[in-house]
Design a protein that fits this description.
- By secondary structure, the chain is α/β, with parallel strands linked by helices.
- Helix content is 35%, strand content 15%.
- It folds into two domains: 192 residues, 3-Layer(aba) Sandwich (Isopropylmalate Dehydrogenase), CATH 3.40.718; 138 residues, Isopropylmalate Dehydrogenase, CATH 3.40.718.
- It is built from ten helices and twelve strands.
- Strands 2-1-5-12-11-6-7-10-8-9 form a ten-stranded mixed β-sheet, sandwiched between helices. It has a two-stranded parallel ribbon with strand order 3-4.
- It is globular and about 60 Å long.
- Bound molecules: nicotinamide-adenine-dinucleotide and 4-hydroxy-L-threonine-5-monophosphate.
- The site of 4-hydroxy-L-threonine-5-monophosphate has 7 residues, from helix 5.
- One of its GO terms (cellular component) is cytoplasm.
- Keywords: Cobalt, Cytoplasm, Magnesium, Metal-binding, NAD, NADP, Oxidoreductase, Pyridoxine biosynthesis, Zinc.
- Its cofactor is Zn(2+); Mg(2+); Co(2+).
């Protein structure tokens, strides 16, 4: 990792596993020399588990990181009961994300790493965004340019349609959208992952990629024209590929990223193959943002002082990837 600036780790839903994971990630990284992060959260949730230093600015994080968890305080309004989300704490969850983005946009932190939120808890307070991805784009003043990628050592996937119903995903799938998402993914693979000549695999939508029109027309009318336009622009892509076989062990080495037509077409293979090492990355933004691939896991959340059943691997992978991405960006200028 070894970022020059500390990373900003958000609160997430305080009743989920986020606070436990923040503490566990600090325990694992504090002496690793990989770089520092600070947690934008409520110090009262963690101070009986680990030494905490409340900081007033991200630049203080590096000096204290080996001895204590740097916390930039964002206080919860209501008592936090692990496993029982409370929409009175939605304000703290949202403020934490907003502040993290402000610090990165101001050049005071290297990237945002988000802890999981429960979208319905925020929605209950009128929060208008279906997830971090869309909220972050709004905070960065580039709504509509956000691209979701999930990345793991075995697979990278990008869904063309994201947090919408399957019916709406089908209605909004267009050639233009596939082209713009694939182009953004291609740029990000070079800029943030150091892949000089990215190879994209474009998924079909229907069984057997439509079986020559027998099982659907979208491959011919929407997806193939997108592939033709991408190739005309010099982008290396293959498809439309049958979605049931393109994620097999034999197929995966043939491409760097799969461009998928809807959320679960992308996320099911990724999370099935690599839940522990999967990282959610938002591309298309001026800032770096990563996140673990799992959710709030209310069913296993417990007090931070107690036994931690949550696996911290995905958060560690998210922190490390944010660090690597910031290094790639710095090198490219
Ligand atoms: N990045 C995010 O903010 C994000 C990502 C995914 C889901 N969510 C939200 O999280 C909430 C719960 O979603 P869900 O139940 O579908 O998925 P989930 O990932 O929270 O939980 C699915 C299962 O995996 C287990 N699990 C998850 N993370 C784990 C970990 N680190 N260690 C051990 N076990 C773990 C849980 O205990 C649960 O049994 C939803 O509101 C969803 O929107 C948020
Ligand atoms: N679709 C994501 C997943 O299942 O991992 C998740 O809901 C997170 O989305 P945001 O990063 O937009 O919150």
């Amino acid at each position: 990792m070894k970022t020059l600036k500390p990373l900003a780790l958000t609160l997430g839903d305080p009743a989920g596993i986020g606070p436990q994971l923040a503490v566990e990630a600090w325990r694992r990284l504090r002496l690793s020399g990989e770089g520092a992060f600070f947690w934008l959260g409520d110090p009262r949730l963690v101070e009986s588990a680990v030494p905490v230093t409340c900081i007033g600015s991200p630049k203080e994080a590096g000096a204290v990181f080996s001895d204590s968890l740097p916390v930039l305080p964002v206080f919860c309004e209501a008592d936090v009961v692990p496993g029982r989300p409370d929409s009175r704490n939605a304000g703290a969850t949202i403020s934490s994300i907003r502040l993290a983005v402000e610090y990165v946009l101001a050049g005071r932190a290297g990237g945002v790493v988000t802890n999981p939120i429960a979208k319905h808890v925020l929605a209950a307070t009128g929060f208008p965004y279906p997830g971090h991805t869309e909220f972050l784009a709004a905070l960065c003043a580039c709504p509509g340019e956000e691209i979701m990628m999930l990345a793991s050592p075995q697979l990278k996937v990008v869904p063309v349609t994201v947090h919408v119903s399957l019916r709406r995903a089908l209605d909004t799938l267009t050639t233009d959208r596939i082209v713009s998402v694939a182009k953004a993914a291609n740029t990000a693979l070079k800029r943030d992952f150091g892949i000089a000549a990215p190879r994209l695999a474009i998924a079909g939508l229907n069984p057997h990629a439509g079986e020559h029109g027998m099982m659907g027309e979208e491959e011919t009318t929407i997806i193939q024209p997108a592939i033709d336009r991408l190739r005309a622009q010099g982008i290396n892509c293959q498809g439309p590929l049958p979605p049931d076989t393109m994620f097999s062990a034999n197929a995966r080495p043939n491409y760097d990223t799969a461009i998928c037509m809807y959320h679960d077409q992308a996320l099911i293979p990724l999370k099935t193959l690599d839940m522990a090492e999967g990282v959610n990355v938002t591309l298309g933004l001026p800032i770096i943002r990563t996140s673990p691939d799992h959710g709030t896991a209310f069913d296993i959340a417990g007090p931070v002082t107690g036994f931690c059943r949550a696996d911290v691997s995905s958060l560690l992978a998210a922190i490390r990837l944010a660090g690597e991405m910031s290094i790639y960006r710095e090198r490219r200028g």
